[in-house]
Write a structure and sequence with these properties.
8-stranded parallel barrel; two-stranded antiparallel ribbon
Amino acid sequence: MTEKIELTDGYKINRVINGCWQLSEGHTIKNDLDFGDVMRAFHMLTERGFTTFDCGDIYTGVEEFLGKFVLELKNGSGVSPADIQIHTKYVPDLDMLDKVDFQYTEKIIDRSLKRLNRDVLDMVQFHWWDYDVPGCVETAGYLCRLKEKGKIRNISVTNFDTSHLAELVDAGIPVVTSQTQYSVFDRRPEKGYLDYLKQHHIPMLCYGTLSGGFLAERWIGKKMEEPETRSQVKYMQVIEDSLGWDGYQQLLLILKDIADKYGVGISQVASRYILSQEGVGAAIIGVRNSRHVEDNMGIFSFELSEEDIQRIRSFLKQYPTVEGEPFQQERTVGSKYRSIMWMNLSEEE
């Protein structure tokens, strides 16, 4: 059983979205992905009702891989390409921001359509690296023109802060969702961003919910290790600036105690906790192999009690979270968060 949410009239998505950032070239330090197994995972997920996928134009190789999956669905039986939803992103390179125009924007959108083997993009999530470079609102307007041309179904944003999202909303950009990092470690959206989204009826799509795999039983009692993926590099920084390793270990034990009560795992409790927050539309859970497909099913096999939620919330309140608004540190020159960002990946073909 899965849960869905209706974003616009007739357009529904899963409340757990299949995330594909971890499949991008250079994400896995050990480079040990079995893409045949990943394709099996995609089929298994869709057959179980998890039909919504998240990718991006800058996730090297991922749109093309999803395009192959679309072709397999066309040639198969059962689930068809029309039954799945693919959300991509439009992320102009940092070095290109001052040169972005309508023609460039349309070229990138057409490239995504070609890569994904789609006639229309279900959702394009817009990102702007540097607010000091003019053109953010105008570029969002280009996406509106492409929506009018029938190339885009829904326009959303990713990694915006409150004031710049408000600029888009005030300009009349039809923002359907906002994708933001949100987890038990990174609670920056709770500082006001989530309230703004609720006021304007814009559901939050949360990534980083499982923090690169750190919210799992295998980490109980472990000492800090060398990260295996870019996700783990990123979320180690977040843990360092929130609970610290000792607080993180205490949280794992709390989550394990709650998980045992429902016969599920720590990752499922952590996911359900974020999904229980008012204003959250969906959580994006990364897909790296077929071994954890059934874990997604378990997220909807139970509901946290109010006592469970307050127990987690009370513990977290004892600790700080990352400074600033969502993605603010990642934009700040000199920040350790910015140092791991790759900002020029949308090379034209």
